[in-house]
Design goal:
Elements (H helix, E strand, L loop, with lengths): L4 H4 L4 E4 L8 H11 L6 E4 L5 E2 L2 E2 L13 E4 L3 H13 L4 E4 L10 H13 L3 E3 L5 E4 L4 E4 L7 E8 L2 H13 L4 E6 L8 H9 L6 E6 L5 H11 L3 E5 L13 H5 L2 H11 L2 E4 L2 H13 L8 E5 L2 H13 L9 H8 L12 E2 L6 H13 L5 E7 L6 H15 L6 E6 L2 H12 L4 E2 L2 H20 L13 H13 L7 H10 L7 E4 L2 H11 L3 E6 L12 E5 L2 H18 L7 E6 L5 E10 L3 E8 L2 H4 L4 E5 L4 H10 L3 H5 L9 H17 L4 E11 L6 E3 L2 E5 L3
Parallel strand pairs: 1-2, 1-5, 5-6, 6-7, 10-11, 10-12, 12-13, 13-14, 15-16, 15-17, 17-18, 18-19
Antiparallel strand pairs: 3-4, 8-9, 8-11, 20-23, 21-22, 21-23, 24-25, 24-27, 25-26, 27-28, 27-29
Helix pairs in contact: 3-4, 6-7, 10-16, 11-16, 13-14, 14-15, 17-18, 19-20, 22-24
Bound molecules: coenzyme A.
Amino acid sequence: MHELEPVFNPRSIAVIGASRREGTIGQQVTKNLIDGKFPGPIYPINPGATEILGLKAYPSIGDVPEPVDAAVYCVPADKVLEVARQCAKAGVKGHIVITSGFAEVGNKREEDELVQIAKGSGGRVIGPNIVGTMSNPAKANASFAPVLPYVGQTALISQSGALIIALDTVTYARKFGVSSMISLGNMADVDFADCIEYYAQDMNTKCIALYIEGVKNGYKFMQAGRWAGKPIVALKAGVSAHGAAAAASHTGSLAGSVKVYQAACNQAHMIWATDLEDMLNKSQALAMQPVLKGDKVVIITNGGGIGVLGSDAAERHGIPLQAAPADVQAQFRKFMPDFGSPKNPVDITGGSGVAGYEGAIETALRCPWVDGIGVFYCETAVTKATDIANALITKLKETGITDKPVVACFVGGAGSVEAGKVLLEASIPYYDCPNKAMSALAALRQASRFQEVGCKVDFEPYTDVDKRKARSIIAAARAAGRKALTEPEAKELFACYGLPVTKSSLAKTEEEAVHFAQEIGFPVVLKIVSPDILHKSDAGGVRVNLKDAEAVCAGFRAIMENVRRYKADADLHGILVCEMAPLGSEVIIGSVNDATFGPTVMFGLGGVFVEVLKDVTFRVAPISIECALAMQQEIKGYPMLQGVRGEKRRDQEVLAGVLSRLSQLVSDLEDDIAETDANPILLYEEGKGCRVVDARVILKPR
Ligand code: COA
């Protein structure tokens, strides 16, 4: 038996604080269990009552003669620990703590104690500060939400209790089928990952929908998602650039939590929802339909307009329509007038009735070329929406085809809404606009891709790295009391992990600078190295394209004069003599140490692309080369890497390796490294690699 079975599927329930007063939470929970027809025993616990709502009441849990699986806490916060001890002693395993007044108001100590008590006797805590839990299969409405939700196969897990209450009756209004609805509240013990793990093995659940405000343990969350093997839809609220403001590196300032959450959810095989509506739309399809195993989607429509909108939406959501092959078109042609279109969208035209739809639907269902179907309908006076809905249901039954997803988009008034109900009752997701329908189909495609990948982790650590030297570089900087590495140190650190940094040597004198320049080869670049000067160019601390010894000497003197003027007391380590890398496409890679997900790498094109357009993408580290290649393809500026205006394709493979290596570096040294930037990297055409021209590493405070 799963450890959370007593919480989510209890056989007997006690309501602690089942009040005698009508309108109280304690009485409502008791009433909800009765009204929901909970089949097991319900034990109201109240020291002042002998009977509540017709049920025998007990003064304390210890007085109940039989074992109790779960207890719903409806007593004030100051009674919770005492009740927890009594429950633990009585062998209760599921502690469903509705009571507020814990970590959310700063009372973390008692919250921790509550968990300790429960776990000490092999129990688990859900909450505190929740609406409760609702399970349709168990007929357990252990909450103060109005009713058990509309029956279906989505487990809806929400950090916000208010959202549970709000959505509870919405599930009836839109026939959104739910297996369980769980309010997680403070997540003192049971968290998203636990719920994912439980509902992944729950036979009554086909899709898991999460409303997330914040994840406590990013690693556990991502592991649970990858291992679930079931579609998960994630809606993240509270999206803001909070935390980025204080970031010291370029990457840090771009890392607003939403981009990192989005990346982490994707890596955890979760389907991202943009808002509540999107979450419900996608979950609806995922709970009702098989996944979309290929990209060939056909839209059957009686209206050109919604067909075109569907086509646009399909492209927007990554499943662009493809013209059906000639033989498939010929089959569709039979079910439309001459002025119809058998291409894709398959436009059977506005005058078509049930027969036209039946023919086109059956053709699409039976056609091996077609992977998924959107049945679109505009409400006309010559057809009845429910007839079209029934035609679709009948064809699905007749053909017996169950492995091809179908979504319906009926645009119209009351007739279409009525047809929508008929469709939903037959487990066909219905939408009132093309965009929602195609976004749902795209979610089915994404779920299929995640299934193909499975839970395999594709990152293979590099063995040709010098972790010991990397640590010693950081240790030396820390010993000198610095919070960041200097450029030569950062480059040396990057080189320990095989990043192709430009050759450079730190010169203390003009003579040394000339010597190093001759060693490296002209032309060279000179850069000031000082922990007190972060923006070298602003301080006049950079000279480029120095072609001979004379230019190096002059450059050295000029830089020294400039920086002394800029900051007289700056601690000057010397001047870095660097190889002048040939011009190439500027890209940036970097990392942040995200508070939730840990080391996270970023990629983007340099210059205005990163600074103005913020065209960047993130992944939780470490990442494989394949993943790093996918990152490059994700940004809007990707065509630049493919080569524009006669330029050759850039060396994406080498760049991917560099990104993957950086991801290992920041993972290996996650206790030390807060942020990194390799900016710019000059990226050359295929086969010519790239050069890391500047490097920055900010250390984690100790
Ligand atoms: N064991 C069992 N019952 C006890 C008890 C104990 N140790 N101590 C007290 N009770 C009884 C009380 O006598 C009372 O019953 P009565 O009305 O018949 O006398 C009942 O428990 C409730 O106690 P009461 O003090 O009246 O509490 P309350 O109903 O005012 O509030 C909560 C209790 C849990 C509802 C309240 O503290 C709370 O946390 N509310 C917020 C809940 C919330 O919003 N959660 C988050 C949603 S998102």
